[in-house]
Amino acid sequence: MRRMTILLTLSLRNVFRNRRRSLFALATIAMGAMGLFIFMGFNRGLMNQYRANTIRARWGHGQLYVQGYRDRAHARPWEHWIENPSAVMARLRGLPQVLDLFPRLTVSAILIAGENMAAGQGEGIDGAAEAGFFTELNYREGGDFRDRANGIVLGEGLARGLGVHLEEEIRLIVQGGERPPRSVTLRVTGIFHTGSQEFDSRAFRMPLNVAQALVATDRVESIAVALARAEAWPVFAEAVRVSLPHLEAVPFDELDRIYYRHAVDWLDAQFAFIRGIILLVVFLGIFNVISMAVLERTREIGALRANGDGRLAIALGHILEAAVLAILGAALGLATGWALSAGPLHDGVAMPPAPGITRSFRIQIELARGDALQVLSLAVLTAVVGCLLPVWRAVRMPIADALRHV
Amino acid sequence: MSLYDVRAVSYRYAGNGQSVSALVDVDLEVGTAEFLAIAGPSGSGKTTLLNLLGLLHGADRGTIRFDGMDVSTLSERQRTRLRRERIAFIFQSFNLIPVLTAYENVEYVLLACPIPAAERRRRTLAALAAVGIAEQAGQRPQRMSGGQQQRVAIARALVRDVGVVLADEPTAALDQTTGHAVMDLLKRLNRDRGITFIFSTHDPRVLAAADRVVHLTDGRITP
Fold first, then answer.
1. What is the pLDDT of residues A75-109, one digit of tens each?
2. Both A296 and A202 in a single domain?
3. Taking the CA atoms of chain A, what radius of gyration do you get in angstroms?
4. Is B107 on the interface with A (CB under 8 A)?
5. In this structure, is the dihedral angle defined by the CA atoms of residues B71, B76, B79 and B81, taken in order, positive or negative?
């Protein structure tokens, strides 16, 4: 115990033995730790915002389909939709994770406004129910149709293509397989933009009962699910598998695999690369400082070994010193990162539109204790690895050579 | 039986494609509680002989027996242990750890030994008192004079109760008065505690304190 105490004391005092060099090392580690910490917070903020957008604009936390429906194309898809959706939803509402359920039906239609015509893909939804949960559609004009039986909302690109504005009429024509086409006239209550150019140029939403009438069905294609917590999805999915085995619960990141999953993977890979660079800088900083320190203390190390100190004990002292340096530097970096996020970066970072996205946005820096712990651990690990080679070289040096060292 | 029995020992330094003989066929016996000086000019092989006696490295040829043991048969770990338990070093430039106090410098060498904390404290204070610097126990080396630092180094050598102290030019970095005081201290410890002191020097005034002087010239013992 006393040996550890004096080794720690020695390490702590050694850190400040050459103040200028130690300050340089501390600054290097602190900058690295701060950069890593802020970047992790930025990444978390970006992913959380993207996830919230994805969940609250389009998919909910996931959707239910008839088992196998998504696996292949169907000549008569309505025959594979969910029967008696009210009864299904009544059972699902009994699950503790469920916040709300939203029956939906996909409709492919030709939209006509005056002389203009465009193809679109929309959804029949329960407007009144969805208005409370799907809050990220970002209406540029107007808003949800809610209880309006003849309301429709359009994506910004689709509305522009049709040249329509609020309260103007649109005629929808739906081709229902071998059945004759059916049409309905609806009035625009809102024009939204999700940020996805591709989605906004073809998407519309209309009342579910109108969509069902167009397709001549009382079934729904899917039921979107809002949970109390996104993390509860696996439990919910398992409950569905057990109690409603003819249904399949698909999470939002699977439904939005192209955008969300790929974005997560892409950002993770980018983060790993940047983290690698930051850790390399910390590694080189520590390597340099410990190499210089060990070089300066060569005679001292020789004297300790001459007086019976083992290689391991001497190496441990220097490894502890590197760890102390890393802890101090990382603590400084974490504190600076925290101060930055609470001060200049409190309102987030303004970002230009991402590829395929039409609007700029702000990313909040979301710092987490787990990240701080990870940064601290990485700094210590990097510092320890960085000091191993110079320390190993020093303790391997013949004692007589070490004592002669100038 | 002699404490050290050195027979036909030779040692060469090799480097940069060159090879230099540091010791040539050295024979030496050292008895327990001797106060032995190794004298000779710079480059005569004094430090090399002390290094061999301190088990810091092995000889190229010949045998060295320490307390009857042939040290060439010992592993690195065994030599380290033997140094820790039986041999101590004092250096010309003291080689104290500058960030530790005098007390901590002395105590540090006991930390590797299985000694209870109270006993370690007692022995550390006793060693500092024996060399007359108990009052400077809380000071760091850079705040002490050269003589005081060498006394700390001597206390560090004494605290483990070793039987042999090897001192490489222990007074070379000290002024004449301090050097004499340090030699008097070593002589007193030799006399009072029966510790074997082997020290190298080329200062004729220091040699006068020795019981016996071994002269080295170009790596050979000369009469």
1. 788 888 999 999 999 999 989 989 999 999 999 99
2. no
3. 31
4. yes
5. negative
Say whether both A201 and A265 belong to one domain: no
Looking at residue A354, what DSSP letter applies? P
More confident residue, B112 or B155: B155
Asked if A308's CB is within 8 angstroms of B85's CB, the reply is yes
Domain count, chain A: 2
Place of tokens 């006399």: B191
Rounded to whole angstroms, the Cα distance separating A210 from A315 reads 77
If asked whether residues A238 and A378 sit together in one domain, one would say: no
Superfamily of segment(s) B32-56+81-222:
P-loop containing nucleotide triphosphate hydrolases (3.40.50.300)
Are the C-beta atoms of residues B165 and B110 closer than 8 Å to each other? no
What is residue A318's DSSP assignment? H
**Same-domain check for residues A218 and A97:** yes
**A149 touching B, CB under 8 A?**
no
Between CA A339 and CA A362 the distance in angstroms is 19
User: Is A252 part of a structural domain of the chain?
Assistant: no
Nearest to A2 among B93, B95, B111 (CB): B111
CB A124 within 8 A of CB A104: yes
Domain boundaries, chain B: 32-56+81-222
Is residue A251 included in any domain, yes or no?
no
Q: What would the pLDDT profile of B2-19 be if each residue is shown by its tens digit?
A: 899 999 999 998 877 788
DSSP letters spanning A129-177: HHHHH---S-EEEE---TT-TTEEEEEHHHHHHHT--TT-EEEEEE--T
Same domain (yes/no): A24, A117: no
- Tens digits of per-residue pLDDT, B61-76? 999 999 999 998 999 8
Residues A278 and A223 both lie in one domain = no
Helix (H), strand (E) at residue B41:
none
